[in-house]
Amino acid sequence: MSAEIPFSNIDPAEQRQQSLDRLLDYVGNTIGRYHPYYRKLFRKLGIDPTALRSYDDFRRIPITRKADIVENQADFTLMPRYPGAGDTHDAEEASPELMAKYRAAAAAGNFRDIFGMRPEEERVREQFLLDWRPIHFQMSGGTTGKAVVTGYTHSDLNERFSRSGAWWYSLNPALRQDDKWLNLLPAAPHLAIYATMLIPLMQGQPNFNTFGGKVMPTESSVALAAADEYNVVIALPSYLMHWLRIAVKMRSEGRIPAVKSFRVAYCVGEPITEAYLSLLKQLFAELGSDNVIVVEGMSSTELRTGGFYECAEGSKLHFDPAGFFAEILDPDTLEPVEPGQPGVFVWSHIGWHGTAILRYWTGDYVSGGLQWGTCPHCGHTIPRLITPIWRAEKDEMKIRGTRVEAVRLLDAVRGADGVNTFQIIVRKADPADPFSRDFIDVTVSAQPGMDEATVAENVRLNVLKETELTPDAISFASAPEVEQRLFAKKLKAEWLIDQRPNPNA
């Protein structure tokens, strides 16, 4: 299977068809032969994986959810049986074509043949294992229950994962080969930290990993950035805002000089809106880095790729159709929506070994859907996920009988004139009475020189305009006090806390 799909001089419909063709080939020749979970599922549903010819055929395969993976963890790993090994698990033996490829690759030996060539069968089996045995593992955050663990084979890392890194670096013309990266993402055994560690190394890109504020204190990483010339930063946007506020404060106190070297900031893991983006750019300018390009990115432990990113500020997330097949589905009917219409992002791996997943229900609600066409910024024909993206099941709540998108409520407060930083708490007016009225409590840090009464009125009007609700209480605190609350439990800021015992009842 070729790794290339054209990104210029191609009709978007033809590009999507090529992606689908690659997917169907992968399902028929790899998943159907070597994937224990889907082999069992196909038998149960009477699906012949080699007979799928269209998208409607493919949709006979049910949605895969997180619980399916957690409950069948080992069976989501592709693993052909080694010829002659016996009936060890539910998979076919590696095909003669595959074994011929491994024999050819083994003929020359490798770095392990230091003291002479090892036996041929040992070298052949080694090539088989390099292609199929997972050697690197990572896990999801596990915030919604037991974590998902995914595995990468040697060939995944050096071919498919490496491609996703090249995609990342090649997509944005603002990036340069001699850029030095500062990674502010928190340390944990998940994709966010592994991708931002491994991909720069595999691409030969200078990169310092701080592992976030709980490993290297925020002031220490600010001092590091001030002492050297870092050009690109990658972070959770909430922590980046916190980091920039501390950096600006340290500059105003004369503890660090102006930091003028930043040109690009990658924000991942949380939705970015216009108000959010504007505040980040303003803080960069106050630090000394004018005209910083702030771009979005996304990935997940299940997805396993280096991620999908914007090519330029506001260009929306560019999706790689060579390694994945994208669907946008109605969250209620699970039917595909029209291009550009909102829905839940569902994807399938193409060509990956190790952990492989079909039709994965991300729970990510893409507000602008998927647009398959030419990007007006880079000029490439590439499908784009139109952000903002929020959690379909988690980022929508009912307050006083009104269904509210969390991202709209947050943006209403964030975008109010005079707001520096904030936190929203939704609770019951009487905590002892679960049937009492919903109460919206907003704590705000006002921008220097702003009248608090004016800022409070701006917040009220913005929230009413965006959600048709009015905050019950607006109080004020200093920026350090608010941010201490935001990051009290974890590095991802808790902008909105729902303290009600049964929020959506």
Question: Could you provide a short overview of the structure?
Answer:
This protein is an alpha/beta fold and 505 residues long. The chain is built from 14 helices and 21 strands. It has helices spanning 12-34, 36-45, 55-58, 66-71, 96-106, 120-132, 154-171, 191-203, 218-227, 237-252, 274-287, 406-414, 452-467, 479-486, and strands spanning 134-139, 149-153, 181-183, 207-209, 232-235, 264-268, 293-298, 308-309, 317-318, 324-329, 343-349, 360-366, 370-374, 381-385, 389-391, 396-399, 402-405, 419-428, 438-446, 473-476, 496-498.
Give the strand order, joined by hyphens, for the main sheet.
4-3-5-6-7-8
| Biggest pleated sheet | 6 strands, mixed
Question: How far apart, in Å, are the first and last alpha carbons?
Answer: 50 Å
Q: From the coordinates shown, what is the CATH architecture of the domain at 149-391?
A: 3-Layer(aba) Sandwich
Regions with little confidence, pLDDT below 50 for 5+ residues: none
Q: Any idea of the CATH topology of the domain at 149-391?
A: Rossmann fold
Question: What fraction of residues sit in β-strands?
Answer: 15-25%
Q: What would you report as the Rg, rounded to the nearest angstrom?
A: 25 Å
The beta-strand count equals: 21
- Report the principal-axis shape: globular
Q: What does the average pLDDT come to?
A: 91
The CATH homologous superfamily of the domain at 149-391 is named: ANL, N-terminal domain
CATH C-level label of the domain at 149-391: Alpha Beta
Overall structural class, as computed from helix and strand content, comes to alpha/beta
Helix % is 25-40%
The total of helices stands at: 14
